[in-house]
């Protein structure tokens, strides 16, 4: 009986001891799990914080990427505009260059026309100088070939409007030169400064200048068969260019209209650069 009691006691103690050990182990396990849970929660919080930081960083990077895209698009647009502007400037420069080249060409044509016109005047001057010899003064003035003959040479007296024999000889030389140059025209300009008039039909120097110039044209037409369409009459009285030394001026073929026509024709038909 005693053995049974002892055995029971030992068994109870053993069971109690085992239960205590298990309880202790269980408590340790619970503590361990709690610690692990706490650690896990901490790690989870760290992960969440990192995730938030990462998301913020991603959002920042996305914003930067968007800004870069916008900047890139703006640069591309500006580059396109700059290219268009450069192309337009290049076209404008090309147009300006062509315009300058055209102006240079026109100036060359005008200079060529002036040179040709001057050559024609020089040739005309030579023809009349050779024809007149030492009679009268001949030269170029204001782009015109000009013959100046004293009224005494043509009419004998300043107040006469009848061409005398010496004057007829001079006019014959002029007529021969005009016939050699059938394209030339002349303007006969009377300049008189008579102090008194023997011919009472003469009103004044205007009247005398006109009659003297008309007498020269009439002589060229009737005596030398010069086409009257090639001649004009102009009276200057004592207010003309030769008012002190009375004289008649013969202006030979100014041809300003022909000169401008020559320039216009050369510009129209000139070679394109």
TrEMBL record:
GO terms for cellular component: membrane. Residues 23-110 form a coiled coil. Keywords: Coiled coil, Membrane. Residues 142-258 form the OmpA-like domain. It holds the Pfam family OmpA. This is OmpA family protein.
């Amino acid at each position: 009986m005693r053995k049974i009691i002892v055995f029971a006691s030992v068994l109870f103690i053993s069971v109690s001891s085992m239960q205590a050990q298990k309880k202790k182990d269980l408590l340790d396990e619970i503590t361990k799990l709690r610690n692990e849970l706490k650690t896990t929660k901490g790690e989870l919080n760290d992960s969440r914080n990192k995730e938030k930081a990462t998301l913020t960083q991603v959002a920042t990077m996305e914003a930067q990427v968007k800004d870069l895209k916008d900047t890139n698009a703006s640069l591309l647009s500006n580059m396109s505009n700059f290219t268009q502007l450069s192309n337009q400037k290049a076209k404008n420069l090309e147009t300006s260059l062509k315009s300058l080249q055209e102006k240079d060409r026109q100036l060359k044509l005008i200079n060529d026309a002036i040179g040709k016109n001057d050559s024609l005047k020089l040739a005309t001057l030579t023809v009349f100088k050779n024809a007149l010899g030492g009679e009268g003064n001949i030269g170029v003035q204001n782009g015109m070939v000009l013959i100046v003959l004293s009224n005494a040479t043509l009419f004998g007296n300043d107040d006469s409007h009848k061409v005398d024999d010496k004057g007829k000889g001079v006019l014959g030389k002029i007529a021969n030169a005009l016939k050699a140059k059938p394209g030339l025209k002349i303007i006969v300009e009377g300049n008189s400064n008579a102090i008194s008039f023997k011919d009472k039909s003469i009103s004044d120097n205007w009247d005398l200048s006109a009659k003297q110039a008309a007498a020269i044209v009439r002589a060229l037409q009737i005596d030398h068969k010069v086409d009257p369409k090639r001649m004009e009459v102009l009276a200057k009285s004592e207010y003309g260019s030769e008012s002190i030394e009375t004289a008649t001026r013969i202006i030979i073929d100014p041809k300003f209209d022909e000169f401008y026509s020559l320039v216009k024709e050369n510009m129209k038909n000139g070679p394109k650069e």
